[in-house]
Amino acid sequence: MKVSLAGTIRSIRADLRRRAALEGLAPGFCSSFFTLLSPPGMAVFIGRWQSFFAHHHLYPLAKLLAILNVVLFSFEMGFRSEIDEGLAVCTPLGVGIHNNTRIGKNCVIAGQVSFTIGPRLGLDEMKDRIVLEDEVLVGPGARIVGNVVLGHHSLVMANAVVTSSAPPYSLLEGVPARVVGSTDVARPFGSRPDPAEKNT
Amino acid sequence: MTLRRLLCLLRDDLARRAVIDTKPFNWSFCLKAIASPAALSVALVRLQGFLHSNYMPPFARLVRAVDCMFFNVDVDPAAEIEGGLVFMHASLIAITGRCRIGRDCVLSTKVTLLSRWPPCSSDPGDAVLTLGDSVFVGVGARIVGPVAIGAHCLVAANAAVQADMPPESLVAGVPARAVRKLKPAEMF
Predict the structure, then answer these.
(1) What ipTM describes this predicted complex?
(2) Which of B94, B119, B142 sits opposite A108 (nearest CB)?
């Protein structure tokens, strides 16, 4: 993924619009500015610049921003993680995103979510990847561990421990997480699921 | 919220903390308590509520940011919190969205109250998360969605509460259910 200056700015704008929608504010310059001043908006904003600097080989700056994010908001984001535009966090506290994570467009992450690949349990920290497709919602306190692909429009409920992949539109719940239903019932934030696509 | 009400709330919080610490409630205790991160973060929550209700939302946001940076306590300024709130330890507590918290509630660390989960794009204003009086929320418990937790409930550690709970019950599990009624001696 190429992280250009224009791409970073576009991502930040999309993030802020998404965050404003999450707070129930009308889209616009004012609401974007105010969400930027709140901790969730600021943490993602710093994270974007951190990956921008890392992709342009300005590692000291990227590291500095990473440390700043952890010190201020306890929001730890690996700067090699690939995050598409439109990421919103409900609260940045205690969120950890591993370097090998790929997050699709318009995902929502609540507080205290971890994306981890430990060196134990047969996982390979260098090769394994965590992939979230578009519009995935991850609930507060959920842990996503290891080589996992979550299909688009999936919904992870609070305190779930996800250790295996899930198809699109799945509703995950429990420890360890199982697919207990479809998100068509739960009505995800943003665009409604397309019924034609769901049948295939 | 008037200044008098703010001071009353601060006094109630400290009095509740004195009860939990089983110490006499006096000036000496107040000074010692306010120097601890847990009580100081509650005081900042009260201050931001005061600023928010007195037409100073930018300052409330500033206090929220300070609380978030220093103590990892992220509380929405619009949350309606009655007197006697106690944080067991000030770390990783998030109260976001529209929440209404009753009297004498105790929150442990890593607790998240989130009034809208999953986030629906329609009618965002209606969802209200309600905690009754004297609810104890254990370590790592997450309460999500517009649910109502009854008075005197005990939410066990790491419970993920997604539905309404009757009063005076022990709530545990992922997803959580009311396991049993609490005995009067167990009530907080």
Answers:
(1) 0.85
(2) B119
